[in-house]
Automatic annotation (TrEMBL):
Source organism per UniProt: Acetivibrio clariflavus (strain DSM 19732 / NBRC 101661 / EBR45)
GO cellular component: plasma membrane
Protein name: Putative membrane protein
Transmembrane portions of the chain: 38-59, 98-118, 138-160, 180-203, 215-237, 249-279
Membrane topology note: Multi-pass membrane protein
Length: 289
């Protein structure tokens, strides 16, 4: 019992200073302002990227209606209506033209957002940017492509996962227990992929050398925070808010911006958490030496 109490007080003595440190970092490093900048570029990239994704799906057996139906399950209804309207209006245009234009537009806008992430992470670690402009831009584009790949892969796992599972089930003649296992893999894989991509993001984006173990906590925090914020926000908007009555059709855009703003805060807080833990480790190391 004494050992349990000791571990409990040790945890409290660790978590409270860490929470205070995160709070001061949140204000001192201008996280809300940088999150606004990141959300702005996200909203610029969102529609071109979704148009690209839906056009890409059109080359598969999956229809755009099925893809949009899966999308409706993870975002607020009013925001979904805006996205669906934009995609419907562009779906009759030339596929190849929209594939190339949408990808370039989304890539350029989102890479500007990644520059905001680099700036935030450098602030978190008290680092000045010494890398060349072209190197930072290239890093932003690579990070954007990795992030886009995560979304595409996660989207395809959710949409095509059921079809793939049924094919494997029939081909190998597996028992019904495989269906349950495959469902778990199908829905857990996107979270695992997100953790890996966030780990890469937090390791290579700041102007500082780090190990993967140093960025794991922030990667898990951002992934879990992203999922929780998305679910809670969707529940709130679909059941308790009246944005549609108050703002009309523009309400969907407002909700998208708010959602992307909170997602941006979560991403930046993940980096701040890694930085706070790194400085705590450095303090303990200095005390023992």
């Amino acid at each position: 019992m004494k050992q349990v109490k000791k571990k409990y007080y040790s945890f409290i003595n660790w978590i409270i200073p860490l929470a205070k440190d995160l709070y001061f970092r949140f204000n001192d490093d201008d996280v809300p302002a940088l999150a606004s900048q990141l959300a702005y570029y996200f909203i610029l990239a969102l529609f071109p990227f979704l148009i690209f994704l839906i056009n890409l799906i059109s080359f598969t057996p999956i229809t755009s209606e099925q893809a949009l139906n899966d999308l409706s399950k993870v975002i607020p209804n009013i925001a979904y209506d805006i996205i669906k309207k934009v995609i419907d209006q562009t779906s009759h245009a030339n596929r190849q033209t929209f594939l190339s234009f949408s990808m370039v537009a989304a890539l350029w806008a989102a890479s500007n957002g990644m520059n905001a992430v680099i700036k935030s992470l450098n602030k978190a670690y008290d680092r000045h940017e010494t890398r060349s402009l072209w190197k930072v831009r290239l890093l932003s584009i690579i990070a954007t492509i990795a992030f886009a790949f995560t979304i595409i892969l996660s989207f395809f796992l959710l949409i095509l996962g059921e079809v793939i599972g049924k094919s494997i089930f029939v081909f190998l003649g597996l028992s019904n227990s495989f269906k349950t296992l495959w469902s778990c893999i199908r829905f857990m894989s996107p979270a695992a992929i997100m953790i890996i991509v966030f780990a890469l993001l937090y390791r290579y984006m700041p102007n500082r050398r780090m190990k993967y173990s140093e960025v794991l906590a922030g990667s898990i925090f951002s992934t879990v925070g992203w999922l929780i914020i998305s679910v809670l926000f969707s529940i709130y908007v679909n059941n308790f808010s009246n944005y549609a009555n108050t703002y009309g059709s523009i309400g969907g855009i407002i909700l998208l911006i708010i959602w992307l703003y909170w997602i941006s805060i979560i991403i930046l807080l993940g980096g701040e958490l890694n930085a706070a833990l790194a400085y705590n480790r450095a303090k303990r190391k200095n005390k023992t030496s």
